[in-house]
Amino acid sequence: MTAAAALLLAVPALAANQHPGAEAFAEQLAAEQGLDAAWVREVLARAEYRPNIIEAITRPAEAKPWHEYRQIFIKPDRIEQGVEFWQEHRALLESIEAEFGVPIEIVLAIIGVETRYGRITGSHRVLDALVTLGFYYPRRGTFFSRELAEFFRLSREENLPLEEITGSYAGAMGIGQFIPSSYRAYAVDFDKSGDRDLWRSLPDALASVANYLAVHGWRADEPAALPARADTAPSGNFPVKPQHTIGQLAAIDLHFDRGGLAADTPATVIELDGADGPEHWIGLTNFYVITRYNRSPLYAMAVHQLAGEIRRARDRSSDVDPEPAP
User: Fold this and answer.
1) Residues annotated as part of the active site
2) Contact 314, 86 (CB under 8 A)
3) Which of 5-19, 33-47, 205-219, 238-252 has the lowest mean pLDDT?
4) pLDDT at 7 over 70
5) 3-class SS string, the chain
6) Rg of the chain (C-alpha set)
7) How confident is the model at residue 16 (pLDDT cuts 50, 70, 90)?
8) How far apart are CA 214 and CA 109, in angstroms?
9) 111 and 117 Cβ atoms separated by less than 8 Å
10) pLDDT surpasses 90 at 292
11) What is the pLDDT at residue 253?
12) Is the predicted pLDDT of residue 233 greater than 80, yes or no?
């Protein structure tokens, strides 16, 4: 066995007692949050290094081409489950839409993509996930160590059991999969219980998703994207955050239906890898807002399309619903 291989095998055993960087992290939390450094070290020592978390984050679904990624989420069962959820919780969803201005189908599509409408909220201990990524994943270690610090703060603010909470391999929690900093900043107590519970309180969980989008600039009565056709590949720089207008894009040989939107509506070009070649879309402000939830354009398009399918399926089911009994 090589020395390098021996070192890799030794990492989990070492991590169970002293994670690299744990001492400095404990001192930082003591200074910033007033926590007892010895207690922080004890908590970290009980966190487990999980190599499967490193493996998972290095092969995210968003690395797939669009036509493969789409097949994960735009499926009949996920659409049907969204319609059923809508029908079951219609009054709550309507109140959230009225409060935050975010369409019901968008909120449903996000929790449909994230957790299958709350069915799968993650089985990793959040503490293990954030310690693993904060101390053993140099590429994004700074980000995840900050989230670990936020998790300590969140556990005190919301009275969460620090060592018991489970979530995704990236430390995201609840029905809407909020990372600790997002939980602290955007979760809302919609049921007025005094707690922001993103697992057991549907009002809190669903309203928090809507609040997140609203705070990031959701524009009511405007779609997220418009299908487009390009005779030739559009040239130029088109970041996900719109830097052009619909009028400008219409002048560069892109064909699309404006849907009544004004020529000065902010817009960009989204190009995705379709099964038969490039797909082109006009991305609007709301498309960019969805990428604040997950930065991948593939994710935003999956949410946009799933939302549309849920809305259409729900409208069809409403058309054939029997008349209520007198």
Assistant:
1) 114
2) yes
3) 5-19
4) no
5) CCHHHHHHHHHHHHHCCCCCCHHHHHHHHHHHHCCCHHHHHHHHHHCCCCHHHHHHHCCCHHHCCHHHHHHHHCCHHHHHHHHHHHHHCHHHHHHHHHHHCCCHHHHHHHHHHHHCCCCCCCCEEHHHHHHHHHHHCHHHHHHHHHHHHHHHHHHHHCCCCCCCCEECCCCCECCCCECHHHHHHHCCCCCCCCCCCCCCCHHHHHHHHHHHHHHCCCCCCCCCEEEEEECCCCCCCCCCCCCEEHHHHHCCCEECCCCCCCCCCEEEEEEEEECCEEEEEEEEHHHHHHHHHCCCHHHHHHHHHHHHHHHHHHHHHHHHCCCCCC
6) 22
7) very low
8) 16
9) yes
10) yes
11) 80
12) no
User: Which residue is it, tokens 């939980």?
Assistant: 183
Q: In what order do the strands lie in the sheet with 277-284?
A: 244-245, 266-274, 277-284, 225-230, 254-255
Paired tokens of 59: 């092969």
Kindly report the average pLDDT of the chain as a whole number. Answer: 91
Tens digit of each residue's pLDDT (9 = 90 or more) over 303-320:
999 999 999 999 998 764
Tokens 């693993």 locate to 132
Q: What's this model's pTM, rounded to 2 decimal places?
A: 0.91
Q: How many CA atoms lie within 13 A of 160 on its CB side?
A: 28
pLDDT of residue 319: 63
Largest distance between two CA atoms of the chain: 80
Whole-number Å distance between alpha carbons of 53 and 172: 13
Distances (CA, A) of 294 to 83, 203, 250, 287, 300: 23, 22, 28, 11, 7
| Structure token pair of residue 323 | 């008349």
Q: Are 167 and 174 in contact (CB under 8 A)?
A: yes
Please give the C-alpha separations between residue 12 and each of 97, 132, 136, 162, in angstroms, as whole numbers.
47, 10, 10, 21
End-to-end CA distance of the chain: 79
